[in-house]
Amino acid sequence: DLYRKVFVFRKDPSDAYVVLRARLEQPLHNFTVCLRSYTDLGRPHSLFSYATKTQDNEILLFKPKPEEYRFYVGGKFVTFRVPESRRDWEHVCASWESATGIAEFWLNGKPWPRKGLQKGYTVGATAAILLGQEQDGFGGGFDLYNSFSGELCDVYLWDTGLSPEKMRAAFLSLRLPPALLAWKSLSYEVKGDVVVKPRLRE
Predict the structure, then answer these.
(1) Phi, psi of 144, deg, nearest 5
(2) What is the pLDDT of residues 122-155, one digit of tens each?
(3) Would you name any one GO CC term (predicted)?
(4) Burial, 190: exposed, middle or buried (Cβ in 10 Å; 0-12, 13-18, 19+)?
(5) CA-derived radius of gyration, the chain
(6) CA 191 vs CA 127, 143, 144: distances in Å
(7) What letter does residue 112 receive in the DSSP assignment?
């Protein structure tokens, strides 16, 4: 249980990462991924990378610069422009549904304008899921200058699109529906220089 704990990625740039294990029985036609990050990086960095054997950017949350997030599904992406962070924790949720191709992006409990992405696509179930690196192959092929350095926590993945109420609940760390990946029952393996520490403040 990682309640009130964080992963600290200590080095910049870094070859470290965290492998997450999700119980995925079938491919995803809808999903929501949420996490909280704290960094002072100005360069591009990967937050959440979900690769299959056929597509290394099957699901990717990537921050190419401080005022921009990229959300990838099946190798294609949409960009969400955000205010440059005031060097504070940022909570992001991204959801996608195959039937409409609608991509939602929420930052700190607020929705951004929805965008269209990969209508009719199916996300593969046999996945390598990593925090802190961007995969250019199945479980590897890292560019250290896309690595994350800083603190990460509250990582979740659902096989549904969350309602607005649940998106806000994720931001506020309230009770959430059962998830494929849940911070309070996370199955993970640290690779390299990542330390689990108590959160410094709420």
Answers:
(1) -60, -25
(2) 999 999 999 999 999 999 999 999 999 999 999 9
(3) extracellular space
(4) middle
(5) 15
(6) 17, 15, 14
(7) P
What pLDDT score does 28 carry? 97
Give, in degrees to the nearest 5, the angle at Cα 200 between 195 and 202. 125
Number of CB atoms found within 10 A of residue 166's CB: 20
Q: How many CA atoms lie within 13 A of 177 on its CB side?
A: 15
pTM passes above 0.90: yes
Token readout for 28 is 């995803």
* Residue 131, helix vs strand vs coil: strand
In this structure, what token pair is assigned to residue 93? 């949720």
127, 51 contact by CB (below 8 A): yes
Is the domain spanning 5-198 CATH 3.40.50.150? The answer is no
